[in-house]
Design brief:
The complex is a heterodimer.
Chain A: H1 4-18, H2 23-60, H3 76-86, H4 97-114, H5 132-153, H6 157-188, H7 193-198, H8 204-207, H9 209-223, H10 234-237, H11 247-272, H12 285-307, H13 315-343, H14 349-383
Chain B: H1 2-14, H2 17-29, H3 58-82, H4 89-111
Helix pairs in contact in B: 3-4
Classes of the chains: A mainly alpha, B mainly alpha.
């Protein structure tokens, strides 16, 4: 009974074979059941995430959060769901109805589809396709499509502006984020997420800390969470792309956003924190699921921590941070990692780990120095603004201003 | 191997059913009393002026072009990363040269002021 999931799968296979079904149909039924169970489990966790989000933000802002319904307010999200289901669904005038309705479906469905390749445990994994990392990049990009569809179809200028900003942000930050994924792929020599987890005897956050940081920043921007929440900047464009959505359609966007955050937490755990790896996870796969969710929840909490700690950035700052800082940085790290990995084939593993870590730390040191110098220069610019040129020079011995 | 793709295929079919179900239930349960005032586009209390689908800033297009270059680059780099063990040092250096050529492209775009938001 060390592995109940495989046990149930085997029992089901035997039971269906006993009914006289062919092996092809058995695998179809098994896969369909797996999909339904995985999807339902993920959505159940999603409902729980609403409670986590509200409770944690309350603590950050020195409030109590939901505490009326059930122990610690645990049943609050269920009441929320029932309320959302009973809300009137308003379609604005002139909206493109088909696209307007399709957008929230895409927003949630793409996130559920992402979970198909994430290994939850050594035996519990939806699909071990050998292009897992590419699959995640591809399916993640469909989420962008859902947002621009929502903004475009709403027939609202605020929504359209929010969608434009969101798309500019998502496509920009996709570049450093995907290259950050490429580094674990180089280290593991495989795109399959199961292989990437399997090869992490030392967590990749030790071998590639810069890639981990860049991935986290990219995830934050990809999610559209503060400090990158320009698409829903309340003081500028009210609510951004989902301004015209009410009732359950808004609920789907909200659920999709929360689940996306947990998915990125899970992906961070898979790529950099060793996924399901932990004490006894090889012999008791059920423990692996626990380890995976603990790591994913910790990363989810870090994403929330960043969200509630930083003010919003301007759009020009957001774009130049991506294109002038993150992209050159991660390309440098990728080149150095690739060369070091090739040069050090055959050396003992601990030397390999040490050199990788040291190279990353050296790069990090120079980057911090450069950023510090840039910040000092910017601060100086603010502290000593340019002398205002006046049309009529003031008669003063100290004045250096000239007539123009 | 085929079973893995079967799972993905079923996922693509079954995953949208969850949100679609969540949209069908309110159709049955929720009230539906639209009136012209309620369905008006939100605009801080006043009526919207002009067409919604306005022309947008050309800067978005520039960033999309730069993104496209790097996205295609990444598609080429993934197979390179997977075949890393079979590559000689020469192959790795060629791959890095490919990255650096695109870095030169990025620097060119930077110098030309495409990355400025003005």
């Amino acid at each position: 009974m060390a592995d109940p999931v495989t046990f149930i799968a085997k029992w089901l296979e035997g039971y269906l074979a006993g009914l006289g079904l062919s092996s092809g149909w058995i695998s179809v039924i098994q896969a369909a059941l797996g999909v339904v169970v995985l999807g339902s489990a993920v959505l159940l966790v999603d409902i729980f995430l609403v409670w986590v989000e509200r409770k944690v933000v309350a603590r950050f802002q020195d409030r109590l959060g939901p505490n009326r319904l059930g122990p610690f307010g645990l049943f609050q999200p269920i009441a929320d769901v029932i309320k959302l289901l009973l809300k009137e669904d308003i379609t604005p005038q002139g909206a493109d109805k088909f696209v307007y309705n399709l957008a929230p479906i895409l927003a949630l469905a793409t996130v559920i589809i992402l979970w198909a390749v994430i290994p939850l445990s050594v035996t519990v994994v939806g699909s071990t396709i050998n292009v897992g990392a590419l699959y995640i990049v591809a399916v993640g990009a469909i989420g962008t499509l859902g947002i621009i569809m929502a903004g475009w179809a709403s027939n609202n200028k605020f929504a359209l502006l929010g969608a434009f900003r969101m798309v500019a942000q998502m496509i920009s930050y996709e570049v450093p984020m995907v290259i950050a994924i490429l580094i674990p792929v180089i280290l593991a020599k495989s795109m399959s997420l199961a292989d990437i987890v399997q090869s992490q005897t030392v967590w990749y956050i030790v071998l590639a800390p810069i890639a981990a940081i860049v991935f986290l920043i990219g995830a934050q921007a990809e999610l559209g969470r503060a400090p990158f929440d320009l698409s829903e900047a309340e003081s500028e464009i009210v609510a951004g792309f989902h301004i015209e959505y009410t009732g359950m359609k808004f609920g789907l966007f909200y659920a999709g956003e929360l689940l996306h955050a947990l998915t990125f937490g899970g992906l961070f755990a898979t790529f950099f924190l060793g996924g399901w790896r932990g004490w006894g996870a090889e012999t008791y796969p059920i423990l692996g699921i626990g380890y995976f969710f603990i790591k994913a929840m910790v990363m989810y909490w870090v994403i929330m921590w960043i969200k509630y700690s930083f003010p919003r950035v301007r759009i020009d700052q957001m774009l130049s941070f991506c294109w002038k800082f993150l992209t050159p940085l991660i390309l440098t790290v990728l080149s150095i990692t690739a060369i070091l990995d090739k040069v050090m084939t055959g050396l003992p593993y601990w030397i390999y780990v040490l050199v990788m870590l040291l190279s990353n730390l050296v790069i990090l040191y120079f980057v911090i120095q450069a950023v510090g110098r840039y910040a000092r220069k910017e601060r100086q610019k603010v502290a000593e603004p340019e002398k205002i040129r006046v049309a009529f020079p003031v008669k003063s011995s100290t004045s250096t201003s000239q007539a123009s | 191997m085929l079973n893995d793709w079967l799972f993905i295929g079923l996922m693509l079919v079954i995953a949208p059913i969850f949100p679609i179900a969540a949209l069908i239930i309110p159709r049955i349960l929720a009230p539906k009393k639209p009136n012209p005032l309620k369905t008006q586009t939100y605009e801080c209390g006043i009526e919207t002026v002009g067409d919604t689908w306005v022309q947008f800033k050309a800067q978005y297009y520039n960033f999309a072009l730069v993104f496209l270059v790097f996205d295609v680059e990444i598609v080429f780099l993934f197979p390179w990363a997977v075949a890393f063990n079979q590559l000689p040092l020469y192959g790795v250096i060629v791959g890095i040269l490919f990255i650096e050529v695109l870095v030169i492209g990025l620097i060119y775009a930077w110098r030309k002021g495409i990355l400025e938001w003005s």
